[in-house]
Each structure stands twice: as structure tokens, then as C-alpha cells.
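Schema walk-through. Below, the input block comes first and the output block second. Nothing else is stored per chain. Lengths vary across the set, and this one has 392 residues.
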Amino acid sequence: MALDFLELKARFVSTFGPADPGIAFGPGRVNIIGEHTDYNGGLVLPFAIDRGVAVAFRPAHGTAVRVVARQYGNEEDTFDVRRVEPGERRWGRYVRGVVRKLEDAGYRVAGACLMVDSDLPVGAGLSSSAALEMATLMAFSAMGGYEVPPTEAARLCQKAEHDFAGVRCGIMDQTVSRMGREDHALLLDCDTMAVAHVPIRLAGHAWLLLDTGVRHELGASEYNRRRAECEAAATLLAPGAEKPSLRRADVGAFADLAAKGRLTPAQVLRVRHVMGENLRVAEMCAALAMGDAAWAGRLLDESHASLRDFYQVSCPELDLMADLCRRRVGCRGARMVGGGFGGSVLALVEESAADSLARDVLSEYSRKAGREGTSIAVRPAGGARLINPPAP
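--- output ---
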């Protein structure tokens, strides 16, 4: 269901009173390839999608911020901008975190009324959290009369997620939510923060996202454990770096330390995934620019296998959904996307076969997994933006 901005405005007015609100929009994202490389200083290749989170907003007198979340049954969260703490509502922590980080960075924040709505399935691997963070930042910057530079906006939202949601995410989601471009992927070097927009020239093909219906919690111990394993390995493999990361790891040192048993079996697997995935990102850039769908599909398959076997963040339902896609005529390749342990599979498919492929895959998935999945077609779209300013 697509977001209806007019309906959101009407709901806002009925809740908070007369005067039209402004609306800020933060898109979700799909990462074509480059999974779990961002917080390792690596390469990622996501695109912003044509779905996301909308925040209707209006300044309010005083220092209280009142937030209503339509996608959570109109739950409310209220806090004071002078004393921003994480709070009890999980979704509210993303809003609170952005407000706190804006204030910490010297930007003006004041009381406001907000209403949040979304057409992103939470937990499906589309980064609903970053979309909410970026829409919130755009709303407060509009009310404050300032603009936060894109790279700084991404950093502030990342810090909000670290400190208020307890998720040690990388910088990818927030960056592409802010800087996405229609019909392009965003090549992001998470070590240098250099970006390049990569054209997607896959005529006659579509991106299909198939949700397993299995939900994950990125704040859970497994995600943070993977990051800790990589950081520990990086201190051994890039000891001279100012900030050690697996991006700066030396292949020769990896071979030597692995042979001497100085890396744990888990660390060996994590390093193998990250090094291989960075190379797959580079190859995917070439495949997209050349319009080579077969090559792009093979890279998707290889990425899924690496995430399953080396990074060990897949689950039976993700493996099943990806395998069912690959068996269908018209599918070029498929892989799990997002943090793992649930969520969705991204498939590159021939456009003419997309509808029938999704229908057949979901039917068989339901029989074999004993749960219902869903599918949506996603396309590369623009980044976060202000739909309209609030009434004077």
C-alpha cells in the first residue's frame, strides 16, 4: 500500500488541530550487494526505493515533542527536547535519538507535533529505521530553518541508532536514504565516505523483494557478536591502521595468521566473507553499467552463499525462498538482504516473468515453510526530501 500524503495530512489535522503540516519523506533501501561490509569499512551498493517513512510535522510552543505512529496503531510518544532519553517505545527511540543528536551537534530543536506513517514492512530488510531517522531529521531541519549536509545527516542518524536503539549499524542505510538517485545504485566506500552513483542498465529486468515473514531484531546479540568478531580480527590484520578495519586487512597477513591458528575459526569465516563481498561489489558495478544481467545474478547467488556459510546470518526460511526463486525460469539470481536471521530475499528477474514467478514462489514457500510470505517490486528512487513545508 503506497503512502497517501493527503490522507496523512488530514489525519494530522484531526489529531493536532488546524493548520496544514509539512511532510518529510525518508525512503527505505535495498542493498544490491555488499552485506555486512559497511561497518567493516568496506564497499556497499544499495539503492533507495520508492517506499519509505513519511513524517507530517508542525512546530509547537514550548519544548515538548508529541509523536503519533500510525503504523503502530496510533501509539503516542511524548518527550522534552531539554531532556531526551531513549524511552520505552522502541520505534520512538529512533525519533528521540535524532532529536538528541541534532541538539548535540549544535542544531536548534524545539517543541513539535509529529505523525509518522510508513509503507515499509518492519523487519523485512528495507531499513525502516534509517528511513524514520532521516524523515525525522528532515522534519526538524525544516522547522529549524537549516540544512544538515548529507554526510553529516547520515552520521547523526547512525549515532542516534547506536546510542538510542542499541544497534551498532554501519553508515550505509542512512547514507543511501539521504543520497539515493532515481535509476541508480549508490556505491559507497564506508572507509573514506566517497560516493558514486552507478547507473542500473538492466533493461527488461525488475527487482523483486520477497519477504519470508520471519522477523529479526538487529539489536539482538548475534548481530553485535558478528561485529565484535570482525573488529577483533581487524586489530590483528591491520595493526598499523589508525582505525583498524577489515577493509585495510592484508591478505598475506590473513593467510599467515590463519595458518598459525591466531584467528579463531569464526574470525576466519567472517574475514573470508567480507573480503569476498567487497570484490563482488566492484564486479556488480561493472555488471550493472554493462547491462549484464546474467553476471549480476551470479553475484547475487554467490553473496547469499557467503552470508549463509561464512557470515552465518541466514536462516532456513531465507535459504528456502532464495532457492525457490532460482529454480524459476526468468530469475537471474537471488540473495538474502538486510541484517539476517529473517527478513527478505532480493531477486533479479525478467520483468515479463515477475508476477508469475512471485506467485509460484510464494505458493510453494507457504507449503514448505508453513508460513505466508509476501512480495513487492521495488525500483531505484530518490533520497530523503521535503514533500512540502509546514504552514506559516
